[in-house]
Write a structure and sequence with these properties.
Length: about 230
């Protein structure tokens, strides 16, 4: 095998209901911290462990496209929106592995600390370590995983020999490491944005203007039947 380092591609899943500056800033900083070649935003179709998104798949896809279209390292991957069944991250990573077969690429699966703590509830969660590196991003109001004693026992055991603070380690192998990224914590939530919009309050400066304009034009989050 060649000694050349692996290229790194970030995989950033979520409902993005709607996408906001918290999401975008994390992705931008991870590009710099990890020297990612690209970040693929992977909006969930029908998430198994979360409530059904409020906005339709179409609206969430268009809003995300509007938010990232001017960043040459950001890409929209809509594979989970095209599925009729529930969304499983492990299936998306398997598909990506197949698509990049023969290329020296490592995937960095970006996950918030709140979701990471619930990882043992995920479908075939242990396989994620075989398909990618995990990059944990702290979230405002949530505990840090720096104290590994706070982890659920199954998760703590699964990650025991995987932790690294060496960015270069992620380029030496195709998967298996767990890396905690220190990024700017913007205390913005999609729930808050939806609440403001539904109440007729301003959500300006919480998300890109073109996304906010789209929400206003199409009455997303204000008229129940317009989001379907």
């Amino acid at each position: 095998m060649s000694d050349d380092p692996f290229s790194l591609i970030g995989i950033y899943g979520g409902t993005f209901d709607p996408v906001h500056f918290g999401h975008l800033r994390v992705a931008e900083e991870l590009v710099e911290i990890l020297q990612l070649d690209e970040v693929r935003f992977l909006p969930a179709g029908r998430p198994r462990l979360r409530n059904e998104p409020v906005a339709s798949q179409h609206h969430r896809k268009v809003m995300l496209h509007e938010a990232i279209r001017d960043n040459r390292r950001f890409f929209l991957d809509d594979r989970e929106l095209r599925r009729s069944e529930e969304s499983y991250s492990v299936e998306s990573l398997r598909e990506l592995r197949d698509e990049f077969i023969g290329e020296k690429v490592a995937f960095c699966f970006i996950i918030g600390v709140d979701a990471f703590l619930k990882l043992p509830d995920w479908h075939l969660w242990r396989e994620l370590f075989e398909l990618s590196h995990l990059v944990i991003v702290n979230r405002p109001g949530h505990i840090s995983v720096m104290n590994q004693a706070c982890l659920p026992p199954k998760l703590r055991d699964a990650c025991l020999d995987r932790w690294t603070d060496d960015v270069n380690a992620l380029r030496r192998v195709s998967s298996g490491f767990v890396f905690t990224a220190v990024t700017t914590l913007l205390d913005i939530s999609s729930t808050t944005i939806r609440t403001y919009i539904a109440a007729g309050k301003s959500a300006r400066y919480l998300l890109p203007d073109n996304v906010l304009n789209y929400i206003g034009t199409h009455h997303v989050y204000t008229r129940k039947n317009e989001n379907r």
